[in-house]
Amino acid sequence: MKKKLDFKTPEDIVEVGADRVFTKAEPVPPPAATFTVSARNKPRDLPVFQYLRKNYGNLRINEVDSLFGFVEKSTLYGGRGFTTRELSDKDVSQLNSAGIGIRIPMSNHTVDRKEYRLNLWLLRKYHVPGNSIICTNDDLARWIRADFPDYRLDASVIKNIKTHAKIEAAMELYDSVVLPMPVNEELDFLAEIKDKDKITLFANAGCALTCPSRICYASISKVNKGRGGEFQCSQPLKDRDTHGMVDFPLEPYIELGFHRFKLLRARPNAMTGF
Predict the structure, then answer these.
(1) Burial code of 35-68, b = ≥16 C-beta within 10 A, e = fewer?
(2) What is the distance between the alpha carbons of residues 39 and 47, in angstroms, rounded to a whole number?
(3) Using CA of residue 94, residue 97, residue 98, residue 101, what is the dihedral sign?
(4) Which of the listed CATH numbers 3.30.930, 3.40.630, 3.20.20, 3.30.2440 matches domain 32-263?
(5) What whole-number distance in Å separates Cα of residue 185 and Cα of residue 73?
(6) pLDDT, tens digit, for every residue of 13-43?
(7) β-strands 152-155, 204-205: how paired?
(8) Which of 36, 129, 151, 229 could link 222 by a cystine bridge, Cβ 3.0 to 4.6 Å?
(9) What does the alpha-carbon distance between residue 135 and residue 124 come to, in Å, rounded to a whole number?
(10) What pLDDT score was predicted for residue 218?
(11) What global pTM score does this model have?
(12) How far is the C-alpha of 66 from the C-alpha of 262, rounded, in Å?
């Protein structure tokens, strides 16, 4: 038989049974920051929540806003060369059911209407509120905005937006702007940004923090188009300081009003993240 134990207020009532105690559930407070985390190189057959526990186990689930990575092959991909799918249909379904979005990196530099139409099937498949498309090409972003209004549009870090004028111009088209890593070190500049809710900052950084040219992105765009060429990197061409993977302390950015962050995975025994 259960008995009731009265505490100070009716809301504090608990029921004591033979083997369980029930208390009133309290709402989980909203997180101070949310993160879009990398699914790059995630094995396709590894369940996505096992992947999150293994690689981002320090985050609470309500702090994970989204995962970015490849779904089916597309010529519109950029940022990294496509080798294999990283987020399966089951992964996407489970994430969306938990209120976590996916961010599809359609950040290729070039696209025309014919190529866009060839990718409509993929855009239709993942067009649900909470999912995002990462764009570098503004024409692609405008077409997606017109045809698929439920997508969140993110201006890729590849656009290298680092002036207040360019940030404000990008916000007319995009829902969020991912700022380049070096901007994290310019707190006075960050403080003057008006719509901080639309900004995504890096929580950690790799080789792009000190890269002087970022020629890799243009070369990857060509590779993902299937037009030949090969990956290029400026490291053999230009001297730079190398720090490996670094973490940014988030408190100063949160105090300024920023709450969206991008979190990379460290490559084992490498100088950058992915």
Answers:
(1) bbbbbbebeeeeebeebbeebbeebeeebbbbbb
(2) 12
(3) positive
(4) 3.20.20
(5) 36
(6) 455 555 666 677 788 888 999 999 999 999 9
(7) unpaired
(8) 229
(9) 16
(10) 76
(11) 0.87
(12) 9
